[in-house]
């Protein structure tokens, strides 16, 4: 008996150490990839721009004047220009959207007729090599008139100035200085952040007064927690479906339908999981909505925040709710007595191992298959193409849904870690899942999704932290197991491992996480010098203004430019 | 019955709102005092200096060369000079200390003989006005030779270079930029912090390799927690003293002494509290030691950290241990079931109210009296003056012991808040304490202690946060009271109050706390311009090097300079 526990303890050590080593090298690798992307990428305009919010207005002065006065006064040597953010009304937004769509369609038609179809070859998902068997025809815009749209200034005068502006600096280093320092002695005024990439800007959130943001964040946090617990209501309702007798009593008309055994099996066997799955499909959009309400200035920030929320939700509602299965109240009881959690988990996890294996099979493998098939997109596309006769729109290619896919992967990681000691039968299934996941996601990222903006590895810290959380949870469960088996020696061997894992996480936080939230002076100065040496600075300064334009006429110009720059990148 | 609870609820609302309003205006007031100190104070040399740690050495290059190369490369326009920190051996430190003491004594003797006694008048503790009834004679150094000491370079060559250096910049703004930005793409290299004031530098901590710091911090955190719980051992031992019978059985020789009733009363009545008080005197030095081990670069940082530790210790060991009175295990049980805490506190606080009133009388009033008398300093001074014939040393005047006095005040604040609803009889005693406390501390700060360095209000955020904690604890206790009296309506009125207090705290954190951790670009640039306009910059640049010198010969020069600048301030 004791011998078996020692084997468990040894396995725990091996798993923890190999996980930590892999995590360390992966973090290091991704950090260096992020750095080399910053250094080697061609001109990234967002590094020159700073978003200033909470601009104070003095006696009727316009926002534009206030910004110019402040930055000319305090950052005269590095300040280049600025661009105020406008708040567009709903009607105007609709109009400008319509205008944009119309122009796009006209241009698409003309380009479709002409010969600008650029053949792009597919690349293999596994090795990244090119193959000639499939070809995708992508429509590209023709670089056309660069003159500003005549009704551009019109739309600006109609719109209302916001207390926010993009301020452009002459160098990357100056821009970063502008964001890192407290500008005014009142920290709620002249709040600066590094601007997101032009495509990444979440315009409507720039209109939110800065003073509201902290309240919004707290409200959304509370709302997410309430949502997490309210979700148990449909779960219990669905579990009620398995008790058909009561349902028939309540709705007599069902009796005729449910007379057949096939129907009964369908309703009791498949319907609950289908309904539950449908409810789960609701979660990522809801979390995206929550994150949008939080007031993120960039789409990537919103997606990152939603990703974190969905991870918390998934781990709570798939792992903990199933493990601690029972009513909401009994789960809350379990949480409020932290001492009993390890033993509770140690008892419950092996009991639920079969369910988790089934979950990997049904939800994991199926989700990979549906990811490859893109069933929804396929049907939507077919209907819009053959029924509504809509032409292909290159802008409709979605970006990778980090907020739905990353949580899935991390959940399976968590299941793997927590079951590895007590129910290792799940591991082959997971290995299979992760292998195919690698192939599928690699293919999807290379060939299917387009990246509209660059997050520069911002998602990785979330993945790292969640994996460390899984690891610690595994160790806590192991502690519970050794506790129930009354083996104090193995318990006392697990505690140092737990401490070491926490220390490892702290070390990684110190060593790597500043890289993901800041840019280093050294890199930026080197890059500035490089650009100056090659005479690229003038060109960048000229582009900045048009690239951060809020209005559709400018948007099209910007798109054109981006398409060009992307082409040059590919070359 | 219900009516009485409503009165309690109303009182809670009034107390909470008035506390929040007072806290807000006090935070605002102290923040503006801090800002005006930064703007209006004469040249603060520390604003020009940056402490750089974790300097990487490449192929045998000296630290000094590495620093110069790095800053000349990346901050050429604003870099002025630098000064490497040396690690002095123990023997050398002793020698230099002896040298310094000898020089001081010689100089003191000569100045005592000459006529440089400057009369400084006492100021009234209450109104700050001057009075002629007392006069303090303070010995001042004569400003003497400014030439560098000949053995200065000698001592430097003997000492070992550390991986740390003070880097001086041409302007305050450039120095702050140097501290706020990540310098290298490896966050564990070229770590920059704004330098502490010259007198505030904690030299021996600058020698600690930066890589150790995070481990030291975690170790100290754990050690402090263990110390907090280990302190219960003397407490229980002392409580054993009240059971004299057992003690007599163990040590038969005590029987003769304890035969008299006076002795018995003394041992059971006074001895336990005296021993406990003596143990408590041990706490602040221990916490100072812990904070020194954490690796703070400044004395003020060390004191601030010790202050926070002593507060946590005091609140735990005086308030919670007395309230939850019982063994360590039962207290831990209470903590691990958070749901039961409000009810537990609600039952226990009124029971302990008499003890707390006695505590205010014995510990609070007595500590004020002993603070005024300075009994220990008086005896020490008398002995050293009349027995050992040591001359007065102006350097022996201590600075204000924030880490012992602030926790005391905050503990009484906590007692006042938590008892205010259930046992308001404590309030007149506390009012008396705080009134006399104001007079006593004002007097002590003006007339007794000397301020060796300026923390610029850094302690206030701790005071604010602890007071908000007290307020929230009061509300939780009130929740417990309404819970035990089964009054759900008053309970549901207390919850919004709790949420509002938390929101208030969050608002203050957003609005004020950045002011206490950063300097704003606007203020620094204005101050730089002002200095440049008045032609003070040159003078400051020349002084910087000598002022941050680590070696005794320089130290004396520095002291001389400081004495001068203090005199000019007073004028």
Describe this structure in words.
The structure is a homodimer of 571-residue chains. Chain A is an alpha+beta fold. Among the domains of chain A are: 204 residues, no CATH class; 112 residues, no CATH class. Helices cover 68% and strands 8% of the residues of chain A. Chain A contains 24 helices and 6 strands. In chain A, strands 2-5-1-6 form a 4-stranded antiparallel sheet, with helices on both faces. Chain A has a two-stranded antiparallel ribbon with strand order 3-4. Chain A is globular. At the A-B interface, α5, α7, α20 and α22 of A face α5, α7, α19 and α21 of B.
Q: Quick one: which chains have the greatest interface?
A: A-B, 35 and 35 residues
- If you compute it from the alpha carbons, what radius of gyration of chain A comes out, rounded to the nearest whole angstrom? 27 Å
Biggest sheet layout of chain A:
4 strands, antiparallel
Write the element-wise H/E pattern of chain A from the N-terminal end onward: HEHEHEEHEHEHHHHHHHHHHHHHHHHHHH
Distance between the termini of chain A: 65 Å
Strand order of the largest sheet of chain A: 2-5-1-6
Percent of residues in β-strands of chain A = 5-15%
- The overall strand count of chain A is 6
The number of helical segments of chain A is 24
This entry's quaternary arrangement is: homodimer
Pfam families (chains A, B): PHM7_cyt (PF14703), RSN1_7TM (PF02714)
Domain CSC1/OSCA1-like cytosolic (chains A, B): 47-205
GO molecular function, one term (chains A, B): calcium-activated cation channel activity
Protein name (chains A, B): CSC1-like protein RXW8 isoform X2
């Amino acid at each position: 008996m004791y011998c078996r526990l020692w084997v468990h303890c040894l396995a725990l050590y091996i798993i923890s150490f190999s996980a930590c080593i892999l995590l360390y090298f992966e973090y290091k690798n991704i950090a260096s990839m992020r750095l080399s992307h910053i250094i080697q990428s061609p001109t990234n305009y967002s590094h020159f721009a700073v978003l200033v919010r909470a601009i104070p207005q003095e006696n009727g002065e316009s926002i534009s004047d206030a910004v110019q006065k402040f930055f000319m006064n305090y950052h005269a040597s590095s300040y280049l220009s600025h661009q105020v953010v406008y708040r567009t009304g709903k009607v105007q937004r609709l109009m400008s959207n319509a205008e944009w769509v119309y122009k796009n369609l006209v241009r698409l038609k003309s380009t479709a007729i002409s010969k600008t179809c650029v053949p792009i070859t597919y690349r293999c998902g596994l090795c990244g090599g090119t193959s000639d068997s499939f070809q995708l025809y992508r429509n590209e815009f023709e670089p056309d008139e660069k003159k500003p749209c005549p009704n551009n200034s019109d739309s600006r005068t109609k719109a209302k100035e916001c207390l926010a502006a993009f301020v452009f600096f002459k160098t990357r280093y100056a821009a970063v200085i502008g964001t890192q320092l407290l500008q005014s002695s009142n920290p709620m005024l002249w709040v600066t952040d590094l601007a997101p990439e032009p495509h990444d800007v979440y315009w409507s959130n720039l209109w939110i007064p800065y003073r509201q943001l902290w309240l919004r964040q707290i409200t959304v946090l509370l709302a997410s927690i309430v949502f997490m617990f309210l979700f148990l209501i449909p779960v219990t309702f669905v579990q009620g479906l398995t008790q058909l007798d009561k349902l028939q009593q309540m709705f007599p008309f069902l009796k005729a339908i449910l007379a057949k055994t096939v129907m009964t099996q369908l309703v009791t066997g498949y319907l609950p999981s289908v309904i539950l799955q449908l409810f789960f499909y609701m979660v990522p959009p809801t979390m995206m909505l929550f994150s949008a309400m939080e007031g993120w200035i960039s789409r990537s920030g919103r997606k990152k925040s939603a990703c974190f929320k969905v991870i918390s939700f998934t781990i709570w509602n798939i792992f903990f709710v199933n493990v601690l299965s029972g009513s909401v109240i009994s789960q809350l009881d379990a949480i409020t007595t932290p001492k009993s959690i390890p033993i509770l988990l140690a008892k419950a996890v092996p009991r639920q191992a079969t369910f988790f294996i089934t979950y990997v099979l049904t939800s994991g493998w199926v989700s990979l298959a549906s990811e490859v098939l893109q069933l929804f997109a396929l049907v939507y596309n077919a209907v819009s193409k053959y029924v509504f006769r809509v032409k292909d729109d290159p802008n409709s290619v979605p970006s990778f849904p980090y907020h739905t896919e990353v949580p899935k992967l991390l959940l399976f990681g968590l299941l793997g870690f927590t079951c590895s000691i007590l129910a290792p039968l799940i591991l082959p299934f997971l290995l299979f899942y992760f292998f195919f996941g690698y192939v599928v996601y690699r293919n999807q990222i290379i060939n299917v999704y387009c990246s509209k903006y660059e997050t520069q590895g911002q998602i990785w810290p979330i993945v790292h932290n969640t994996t460390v959380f899984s690891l610690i949870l595994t160790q806590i469960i192991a502690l519970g197991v050794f506790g129930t088996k009354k083996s104090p020696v193995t318990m006392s061997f697990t505690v140092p491992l737990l401490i070491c894992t926490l220390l490892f996480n702290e070390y990684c936080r110190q060593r790597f996480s500043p890289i993901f939230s800041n840019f280093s002076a050294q890199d930026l100065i080197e890059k500035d010098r490089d650009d100056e040496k090659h005479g690229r600075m003038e060109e960048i300064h000229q582009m900045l203004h048009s690239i951060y334009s809020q209005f559709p006429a400018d948007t099209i110009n910007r798109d054109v430019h981006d398409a060009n720059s992307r082409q040059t990148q590919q070359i």
